[in-house]
Amino acid sequence: MNKTKETFVFGFALFAGFFGAGNLILPPMLGFKSGSDWWLVTVGFVISATLIPLLALLGHAKLQGTLYDFGKKVSHSFSMVFLLIIYVICIVLPSPRTAAVTHEMAIAPFFGTSALLTSIIYFTLVFLFVLNRNKVLNIIGKYLTPIIAIILLAIIYIGIFSANTEMISTSFNSPIISGLLEGYQTYDAIGAMVMGGVIIVTINNSKSTLTFAEKKTMIAKSGMIAVTGLLLIYGGLIAVGAFFNTQFDVNISRAELLSGISLLTLGKLGTAFLSVLVGLACFTTAVSIIVSIADFFTMYFKKFKNAYLITSFICCSAGILIGQMKVEYIINVALPALMIIYPLCIVLIILNVLPEKFASKLVFKWVVLITFIFSIPDFLGFLMPLENLNSIKAIIPLANENLGWVLPALLTFILVNLIKKLKAKN
After folding, report:
1. How far is CA 306 from CA 20, 105, 184, in A?
2. Of all helices (H) and strands (E), which one includes residue 5?
3. Which of these, 382, 381, 383, lies nearest to 391 by C-alpha position?
4. 3-18 and 212-243 helices, crossing angle to 10°
5. CB atoms < 10 A from the CB of 86, how many?
6. Mapped to the 3 state alphabet, what secondary structure does 35-54 carry?
7. Cβ within 8 Å of residue 145, ≥6 positions away
8. How many CB atoms lie within 10 A of CB 134?
9. Within 13 Å, how many C-alpha atoms sit on residue 304's CB side?
10. pLDDT at 134
């Protein structure tokens, strides 16, 4: 396979890996709630669900390691704990959610079977795909991604050019921030940190003669292809949700809204088309997540021959148990964890992309520490809302928007670099 073709296959595979349950059901609801301000919501959503993931992939291109490498400048212990937390989150939240969405939108409307049965069959198939690790990226990149893209683009194109332009006004106080925080639920930043390693392992396993610089270019270009696709799809789905926001009940669920839009755009076949789309999009994401995790533990436990098999089995077993739960429940349960882990992901991604002279070990340590401390009020606010938190949030800039960590992290970054520069001069 030539380099250009390989780059596109990796790019399409990354896109399919990103584009799962949350990526399908979150954007239309954002547009639905934002109405005429849909473009502002899109800006916020794109920052957390497209720009940050792209930076993570550029970080992978620079590091050419695993998720562990993103935090190693803080310390070995921190990086291992951070890595394990990320992998646990992936195993118990985004991966099982793909099965839950598939059941609610693609299986239950047609067959009325139990969520447990869907979850068992779904993760059995995922397990079989994961065992064929060397063929996964090729199958996803060459065949599944084009099918997903064609169905999505059909819904978006017909929706935008056939919808009523009359829209209900926004229900968001800060559309950009609402879009940005909703982007957390896509797990795209986490996904980029996790799945970027799959590309590196695949390139290395292919016995490629590419140099470090050539690998760096290939990973960066693959990332650009993937996030360009995400940008177009996200913007389109948000716009369609906004353009149809007078045609559904205000209390409609995320899954029902997407089903309703597909029915209005693609007619009676819309539900069937959407079922195929949901199944493919969710399935490719689950496979990509589990392959990523299994790859890491295979590398970490090199002497243990069955590390890949056992890790995959554990991930799929957890998926079966949690995947039978309701989608909205899984989304709501995830919020506290995302409020504290996502800011850490963002700062680690940005610091790893920056030139070495601005991102020393000392900068890493202080920025990560301050980010963690100022994320705690957001975490506690979603976990167990307390009156005392309001007085704390009142003195932290942007804390009421659940972004209280942003300015302290930025100031810490500037101050540590200034102190370092002054010490160097003296």
Report:
1. 28, 35, 34
2. helix 3-18
3. 381
4. 40
5. 21
6. HHHHHHHHHHHHHHHHHHHH
7. 12, 13, 15, 16, 284
8. 9
9. 14
10. 63
Residues contacting 207, CB < 8 A, separation 6+: none
Report how far apart the first and last C-alpha atoms of the chain are (Å, whole number). Answer: 55
Torsion of the alpha carbons at 345, 350, 354 and 358, rounded to the nearest 10? -80
pLDDT tens-digit series, residues 138-191? 676 667 777 777 878 888 888 888 766 678 877 788 899 999 999 998 888 998
Give the chain's residues under pLDDT 50.
none
Phi-psi region for residue 385, left (φ > 0), alpha (ψ -120 to 50) or beta? beta
Helices (H), 19-105: 21-34, 38-46, 52-63, 68-71, 76-92, 94-102
Which tokens in the block code for residue 381?
């606010």
The answer to whether the CB of 297 falls within 8 A of the CB of 112 is no
Of 155, 100, 129, nearest in space to 17 by CA: 129
CB 130 within 8 A of CB 316: yes
- Tokens matching residue 209: 């003669």
Rg (CA), the chain: 21
Structure tokens at 270: 């819309």
